[in-house]
Recover the amino acids of this structure.
């Protein structure tokens, strides 16, 4: 299985979105999120986007104050995941228009829906932005 | 900014955000949780909208890291809401809050199924996503057919089918039987023809999972994958929406190339040509561009293509092209590319021919070892470790040593272990090896595990030429002002043994050596003091003529420690004191340590064990191990000389340790030291301190000091030992080691060896039976996995107590036994599942150490488990067209081995055919023109070899049925050897006559090589 988790965490270490594709209990999640963010915060932009942590490889990207972190196993293509993060951000951009931390925070449910359209069971399901967004548009129309 | 549709939720989120500190946040969250709880209690008043709002709040709180232990029912119940918005929330929150084992999830199965088979496709999507993310085994059993139907249905829209594909993947992982291989491979092939890129992307993930488990069934899909790649590479029929920065779905390209890496080769020349065209184009046509995203995406594809080329082991030219590319990558400024260049170069080392080209980049790689980025440093370290050989070991190890002083703490342990291993493996001369290890201890003592210094002591002991040099070096280090405790240990040990070789040098008289070592004593911990005491005793012995002054100094120390609270120190002090008063007798007893038996380096073994995960061990994995160790998980780190370490829970009970246990028991119960007199000579037994990290080596190093020429494991073979202890063995001690005394009064029913042999050929039957218990076994084998169930049946009207089952797996099997209850009720049968994973080919046999108590009878038996080599075979018929090219391509040793076997038990050819077929070696009639010969084939599965075709040819002599010539071939040298030996064992096997459970002769497996005796599994099997 490729993707183990997707996290969005801000510079202060507050989790803004967390989706796990393997079960971890609350303790483990808290510890994991804390450790990873500490590790990533200590890094600068001249360093690579991959951090080995426990038995995960974390592929991360920073957009302004927000870190996007994807935990994968050894069987994943790191650069493909790195660009998948960007695809996720672009998709959110298309929906929110210049997405920022607050959008994700206050529209937690939409962020979740988008991610759910893109990743399932740790695998990529869809990479076309319009296909990803169409269920959300449908929902907005309905309400 | 636009607030979310749910005002209450937005207010809450912004309240939490405005909290000044964690304490205030907690208060706010607690208040909200209280509020939600109250609202849920009066459920009648809640509108669907309110429910939705509260459930989102719960999810938000959970995400912040607070426990939400209620409201799960409400979340699940939303799934059955009639309207889409509520239903959707129900699904999403359920899959975030619950895991697959949650009881509430079962309640939802029916609703979920109705949504899946219903006509509303948005509901279908929601339900498929939930099952795909958290569906468990029960879902697999009840939903798989429906999900399959959706996936292949032509009337179903892509948005549903893509989810069905990944949902099916989940169900397949929960229960592989849900995808019936026979019919399924054709459908899979059809799915790969899919035009919709979403469906194709998720189907490809499903395909990767299927093919990684069993590529044989999916050969027909291979050309389809190549077609997909061609379509993407040529950008044919790829909608704009699926092009990412001008690159046709890089993710699908990567996935497809990954799938192809699960096929051993591409045989069809046309497909191969098309594939290489695509790969060539990727290798040549990927340029560095300004746009980061485009650059990353194209390099993602490039790296995957590199991996595929390496896997296919293409023509030399293409391979050197790959190495050249990687060489370029490891020197670029872009850190991601540098990282991946190093990582892929390490992978490339597996391909034998390129090592020399990689070596040309050594200087560049060493530069990366000093990179400011730890991720890159780690990769560089791995690569240097992998590329090291005799020619460059000195350079590389010296670089590592130099780096050690500045390395991050997180890396030091790994670094020192790797340096130690390389120094050992590739030392141009042994004195260099000693230098390296001592430097290592000097520079990073805290990170040098005990194994490392044990190993250097072994080397010095076994190589006489090295002893004066090592002693001199050890003496030099002692002059340093502050040295690490490990350095004190190793130098004290070496000087104790060999300082007399230095006697004429300045500063090396016994007295001087003693005083410089003794200076360190106040600084060391209790675990080091025993070593120092041994050293003193040895120095005293070597001082000829005796030095009265030195003697009285050392005796003073011994008598001081005779009342030490630490039993180990106390015992040594008393013994050495008594011994050294005996004068001449001391010489024999304290003679130099004998040579250690040659054995695989425990360091290398350790590195192999940890290779899978070089970074920190996962806490989660560790936790899982600890939990299941209730059910006796034994790691395979057992040492070679027969004293397995006590597992975390102390469940390992091995008979040969019982003597030590007796001593130990007495030691603790009486608080007195044991000095046993045998025939007037003193015999010292050093019980191992319970906390010793690695008993095997300590057992040798700190264990019994050369007892009249006996080596470490001598005591239990000494018949005088027992009587020597009798006086001291009291009831307490008996209670500690009762197994040996009281077992074997119960006779087994039937012949254990025959039962085992029968189970090697079939999958269910009785493994063991005696008047009280029957142990049955039932097994299912699937590629390199085995699922066994042990049936423990109590035959009596009284319960069986203290039931213990312990699996002692050989190093090539990973075995996990579920919890075995301590008591088996009267007339009851309990089932204990046992999971087996085959890591590599080996004939070693796993042993079940089983014990129980019935009334006053303590029964302990050691049973070989039929998880033998042939269980991992899958018979396969090959045609002449398939057979001969393979047979020819595997030319000569070590892949093809031939042997004339004598002493074969005579059997007719037909019987032999039957035997082979029952071993899952499929006899292929008609391939060999000579009717006296037979040819058989099978596929062997293990984690290291994956699926591997094995071919066997037997040439018999009709005139003499007791001999034959056997040729065995496969793509893996170990497999070939093990298979050959395995077949030989089967052919010359002679059933052992029926015996009681009392010790059987160790040669149960007559042809096993002598080194098998060192394997504890084999050792125990021999005890049967």
């Amino acid at each position: 299985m490729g993707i183990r988790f997707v996290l969005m965490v801000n510079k202060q270490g507050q989790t803004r979105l967390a989706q796990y594709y393997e079960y971890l209990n609350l303790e483990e999640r808290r510890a994991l999120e804390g450790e990873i963010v500490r590790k990533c915060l200590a890094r600068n932009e001249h360093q690579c986007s991959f951090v080995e942590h426990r038995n995960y490889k974390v592929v991360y990207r920073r957009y302004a104050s927000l870190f996007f972190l994807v935990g994968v196993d050894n069987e994943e293509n790191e650069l493909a995941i790195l660009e998948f993060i960007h695809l996720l951000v672009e998709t959110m951009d298309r929906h929110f228009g210049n997405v920022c931390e607050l959008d994700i925070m206050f529209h937690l449910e939409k962020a979740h829906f988008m991610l759910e359209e893109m990743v399932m069971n740790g695998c990529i399901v869809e990479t076309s932005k319009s296909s990803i967004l169409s269920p959300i548009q449908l929902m907005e129309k309905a309400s | 900014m636009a607030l979310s549709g749910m005002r209450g939720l937005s207010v809450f989120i912004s309240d939490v955000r405005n909290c000044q500190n964690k304490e205030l946040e907690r208060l706010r969250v607690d208040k909200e949780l209280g509020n939600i709880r109250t609202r849920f209690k009066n459920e009648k008043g809640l509108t669907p909208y309110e429910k939705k709002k509260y459930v989102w709040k719960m999810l938000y709180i959970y995400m912040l890291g607070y426990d939400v232990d209620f409201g799960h029912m409400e979340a699940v119940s939303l799934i059955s809401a009639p309207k889409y918005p509520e239903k959707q929330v129900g699904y999403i929150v359920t899959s975030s809050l619950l895991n697959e084992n949650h009881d509430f999830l079962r309640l939802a199965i029916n609703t979920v199924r109705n949504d899946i088979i219903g006509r509303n496709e948005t509901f279908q999507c929601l339900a498929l996503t939930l099952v795909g993310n958290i569906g468990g085994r029960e879902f697999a059993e009840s939903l798989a057919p429906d999900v399959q139907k959706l996936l292949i249905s032509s009337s179903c829209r892509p948005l549903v089918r893509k989810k069905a594909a990944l949902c099916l993947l989940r169900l397949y992982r929960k229960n592989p039987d849900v995808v019936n291989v026979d019919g399924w491979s054709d459908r899979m092939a059809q799915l790969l023809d899919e035009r919709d890129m979403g469906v194709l992307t998720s189907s490809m993930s499903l395909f990767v999972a299927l093919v990684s488990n069993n590529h044989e069934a999916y050969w027909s899909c291979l050309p389809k994958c190549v077609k997909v790649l061609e379509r993407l590479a040529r950008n044919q029929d790829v909608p704009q929406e699926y092009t990412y920065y001008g690159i046709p779905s890089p993710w699908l390209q990567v996935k497809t190339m990954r799938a192809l890496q699960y096929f051993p080769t591409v045989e069809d020349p046309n497909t191969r040509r098309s594939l290489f065209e695509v790969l060539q184009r990727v290798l040549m046509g990927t340029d560095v561009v300004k746009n980061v995203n485009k650059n990353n995406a194209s390099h993602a594809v490039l790296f995957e293509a590199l991996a595929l080329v390496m896997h296919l082991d293409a023509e030399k030219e293409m391979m050197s092209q790959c190495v050249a590319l990687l060489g370029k990558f490891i020197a670029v400024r872009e850190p991601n590319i540098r990282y991946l260049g190093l990582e892929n170069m390490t992978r490339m080392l597996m391909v034998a021919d390129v090592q020399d080209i990689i070596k040309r980049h050594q200087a560049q790689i060493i530069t990366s070892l000093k990179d400011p980025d730890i991720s890159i440093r780690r990769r560089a370290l791995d690569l240097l470790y992998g590329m090291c050989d005799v020619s460059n070991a000195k350079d590389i190890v010296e670089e590592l040593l130099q780096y050690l002083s500045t390395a991050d703490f997180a890396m030091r342990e790994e670094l020192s272990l790797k340096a130690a291993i390389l120094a050992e493996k590739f030392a141009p001369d042994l004195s260099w090896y000693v230098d390296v290890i001592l430097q290592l201890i000097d520079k990073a003592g805290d990170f040098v595990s005990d194994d490392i210094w044990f190993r250097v002591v072994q080397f010095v002991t076994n190589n006489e030429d090295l002893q004066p040099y090592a002693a001199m070096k050890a003496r030099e280090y002692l002059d340093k002002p502050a040295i690490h405790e490990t350095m004190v240990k190793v130098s004290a040990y070496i000087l104790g043994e060999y300082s007399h070789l230095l006697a004429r040098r300045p500063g090396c008289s016994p007295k001087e050596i003693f005083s410089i070592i003794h200076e360190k004593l106040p600084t060391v911990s209790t675990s080091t003091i025993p070593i120092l005491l041994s050293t003193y005793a040895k120095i005293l012995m070597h001082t000829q003529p005796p030095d009265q002054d030195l003697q009285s100094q050392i005796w003073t120390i011994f008598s001081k420690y005779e009342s030490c609270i630490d039993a180990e120190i106390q015992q040594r002090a008393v013994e050495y004191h008594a011994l050294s008063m005996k004068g001449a007798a001391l010489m024999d007893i304290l003679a130099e340590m004998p040579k250690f038996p040659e054995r695989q380096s425990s360091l290398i073994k350790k590195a192999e064990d940890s290779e899978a995960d070089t970074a920190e061990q996962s806490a989660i994995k560790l936790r899982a191990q600890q939990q299941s160790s209730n059910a006796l998980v034994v790691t395979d780190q057992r040492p070679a000389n027969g004293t397995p370490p006590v597992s975390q829970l102390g469940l390992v009970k091995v008979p040969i340790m019982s003597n030590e246990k007796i001593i130990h028991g007495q030691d603790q119960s009486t608080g007195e030291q044991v000095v046993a007199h045998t025939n007037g000579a003193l015999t010292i037994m050093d019980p191992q301190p319970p906390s010793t990290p690695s008993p095997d080596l300590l057992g040798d190093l700190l264990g019994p000091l050369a007892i009249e020429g006996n080596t470490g494991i001598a005591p239990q073979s000494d018949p005088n030992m027992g009587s020597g202890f009798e006086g001291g063995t009291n009831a307490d001690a008996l209670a500690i080691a009762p197994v040996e005394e009281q077992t074997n009064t119960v006779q087994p029913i039937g012949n254990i060896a025959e039962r085992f042999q029968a189970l090697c050929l079939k999958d269910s039957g009785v493994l063991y039976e005696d008047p009280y218990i029957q142990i049955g076994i039932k097994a299912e084998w699937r590629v390199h996995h085995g699922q066994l169930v042990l049936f423990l049946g109590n035959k009596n009207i009284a319960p069986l107590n203290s039931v213990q089952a312990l699996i002692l797996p050989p190093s090539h099997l990973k075995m996990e036994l579920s919890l075995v209850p301590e008591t088996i009720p009267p007339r009851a049968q309990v089932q204990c599942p046992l999971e087996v994973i085959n890591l590599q080919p080996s004939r070693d046999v796993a042993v079940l150490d089983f014990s129980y108590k019935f009334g006053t009878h303590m029964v302990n038996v050691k049973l070989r488990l039929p998880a033998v080599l042939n269980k991992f075979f899958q018979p396969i018929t090959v045609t002449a067209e398939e057979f001969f090219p393979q047979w020819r391509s595997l030319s000569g040793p070590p892949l093809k081995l031939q042997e004339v076997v004598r002493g074969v038990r005579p059997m007719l050819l037909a019987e032999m055919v039957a035997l082979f077929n029952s071993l899952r070696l499929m006899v292929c009639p008609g391939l060999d023109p000579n009717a006296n010969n037979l040819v058989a084939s099978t596929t062997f599965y293990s984690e290291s070899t994956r699926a591997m075709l094995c071919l066997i040819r037997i040439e018999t002599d009709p005139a003499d049925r007791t001999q034959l010539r056997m040729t065995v071939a496969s793509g893996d040298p170990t497999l070939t050897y093990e298979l050959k030996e395995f077949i030989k064992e089967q052919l010359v096997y002679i059933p052992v006559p029926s015996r009681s459970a009392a010790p059987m002769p160790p040669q149960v497996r007559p042809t096993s090589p002598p080194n098998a005796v060192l394997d504890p599994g084999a050792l125990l099997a021999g005890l049967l």
In short: Chain B has 43 helices and 18 strands.
